[in-house]
Design a protein that fits this description.
By secondary structure, the protein is mainly α. It has helices at residues 4-21, 29-55, 79-105, 111-130, 134-152, 158-190, 210-220, 232-235, 241-250, 252-268, 270-276, 280-299, 303-324, 327-358, 374-388, 395-408, 412-438, 451-469, 474-481; strands at residues 61-68, 71-76. A hairpin with a 2-residue loop joins strand 1 and strand 2.
């Protein structure tokens, strides 16, 4: 056991050390490629120590420098931060293993650069998770954007450069034009940027202005991919599949919805949001995003594009939970960060395994492939069931809590939105499995297995099952999020 403050330092230092050491091992790929998994294990152990300290009632913190009264650069872990820290660090282990198999299997160039920036992105995600105030969160939110840009443009062709330009334009533009002014507004209103249980704006902010401040945050946090600021996400699918997994499960979009939920719980206070009705508009925008992106996903034949629009829909589940601002909805949103992460990384792992092993990228080309890659397609099936919300998969818990939260607010129409969304999930997520096992092959496909891209999706798919039966410690942490 190590002190919680030391665990924070270790957890932040491990991925940074991996990033710094990787360039020196470019000519020794065997050593270079074990750094990521080792760093992931160290980081996860540190994150677990931090989470256990939070559960025990402690507040792990590390003060880096005090700037002025009420403003400092510090890490102070909330219950929600402990959840995100566990997700980011735990999934990095499998993502690091998978990345080695994928990058080697596709003979990608610039593998050393890729591994270094991948580790920096994980470091930034953990810093966001454990940030003690909005200033630190904003700084590392930007670090995460800039560290993932080289990953998005990894192939360095015209399509990748265009995607990178859109990626940076939307994410940097929204954060500087909207998120930063929102942070400054909070500082001027409350005199502090610290996260506090129950929020810091009640009694400080004019209730009539609450919807406007919330709008600055909602649209300024571009990584949450609310429509109409979602286009960067499907465009970024031009990147290698391990980057897609990083974007959708480990770091980027989860950092976005984590930030949105943090703002509602620890800056506004969800009771203040509910009392002022500040989020009514956001409930309907999130509902629209959930349904519209699902309809678009159905029309996509490219596997990764379909999964990208699925992610946009699922992110809005979390935004919706925050906007509903009821105890059950907040719990559901926090838990959905975990459940969607384990399921969606499984689906992207499977998409990459299919590409590496069979060189196929389209749903319509998967006919009969399930018998040649049974474990991959079964893993895809389990991940899909979790996102749909079918027991005994973990995603069923978070969807149940979100529906209960909607009922708690008396919003039956929102329950209908969630139900229709689940039916649309069935349509576009089970089609690949149906084609793989129940349709006649269109062509002879030669499959060459690469174990390092097959084992990780099996592990993460089983994790989605385990999380249904053993949701601890996440179940305890989500309860602590709403404690007075």
């Amino acid at each position: 056991m190590i002190a919680p403050s030391h665990a924070i330092i270790l957890g932040l230092a491990a991925p940074l050390a991996v990033a710094l050491l990787t360039p020196f091992l470019g000519k020794r790929p065997q050593l270079r490629d074990v750094l990521g998994p080792i760093g992931g294990v160290i980081t996860f152990v540190a994150a677990l120590q931090v989470a256990l300290a939070v559960i025990a009632g402690d507040t792990p913190e590390w003060l880096v420098v005090n700037i002025s009264s009420g403003l400092d650069l510090s890490f102070r872990v909330t219950a929600l931060g402990a959840i995100f820290g566990l997700v980011a660090s735990g999934l990095w282990i499998m993502a690091a293993v998978y990345s080695v198999g994928y990058m080697r299997g596709t003979n990608e160039d610039n593998q050393t650069r890729f591994a270094a920036f991948y580790a920096i992105a994980v470091h930034a995600a953990l810093a966001i998770a454990w940030s003690g105030n909005l200033l630190v969160l904003f700084i590392f939110y930007e670090v995460l954007t800039f560290s993932t840009y080289p990953l998005v443009i990894h192939k360095q062709n015209a399509e990748a450069i265009r995607a990178g330009r859109l990626y940076m334009g939307i994410l940097v533009g929204t954060s500087l034009m909207l998120l930063l002014p929102a942070v400054v507004w909070v500082w001027l209103t409350a005199g502090t940027l610290d996260f506090k249980q129950g929020g810091i704006l009640s009694g400080q902010l004019d209730p009539a202005l609450a919807p406007w401040m919330l709008a600055l945050f909602a649209f300024g946090i571009g990584k949450s991919a609310l429509m109409p600021i979602h286009r960067w996400l499907p465009a970024a699918m031009v990147a290698p599949t391990p980057v897609s997994a990083l974007l959708h499960a480990v770091a980027v979009v989860k950092a976005g919805v984590f930030t949105m939920l943090t703002v509602v719980v620890y800056i506004f206070g969800y009771d203040f949001v509910a009392e002022t009705g500040a989020s009514t508009w956001l409930i309907w925008l999130a509902s629209f995003t959930i349904l519209a992106s699902s309809v678009i996903a159905i029309q996509k034949d490219d596997i990764k594009a379909r999964l990208a629009y699925s992610t946009i829909s699922q992110l809005s589940y979390i935004v919706l939970g925050a906007a509903l601002a009821s105890e059950m909805a907040i719990k559901g949103a926090g838990l959905h960060i975990v459940m969607h992460a384990s399921a969606k990384i499984t689906l992207f792992f499977c998409a990459g395994a299919i590409y590496v092993s069979a060189h196929l990228k389209k749903v319509s080309d998967l006919n009969g492939l399930g018998y040649q890659m049974p474990m991959v397609f079964i893993a895809f099936f389990l991940g899909a069931l979790s996102i749909i919300g079918i027991p005994p998969l973990g995603g069923s818990w978070s969807k149940f809590l979100l529906m209960a939260g909607a009922a708690e607010r008396g919003m039956m129409l929102v329950i209908l939105v969630l139900a229709v969304s689940s039916l649309l999930n069935v349509w576009y997520l089970l089609e690949p499995v149906m084609r793989g096992f129940f349709m006649t092959p269109k062509q002879d496909v030669k499959v060459s297995y690469h174990p390092l891209v097959v084992i990780p999706p099996i592990v993460t798919a089983l994790l989605s099952v385990v999380l249904f039966f053993v949701p601890w410690p996440f179940s305890t942490l989500i309860s602590m999020m709403v404690m007075p």
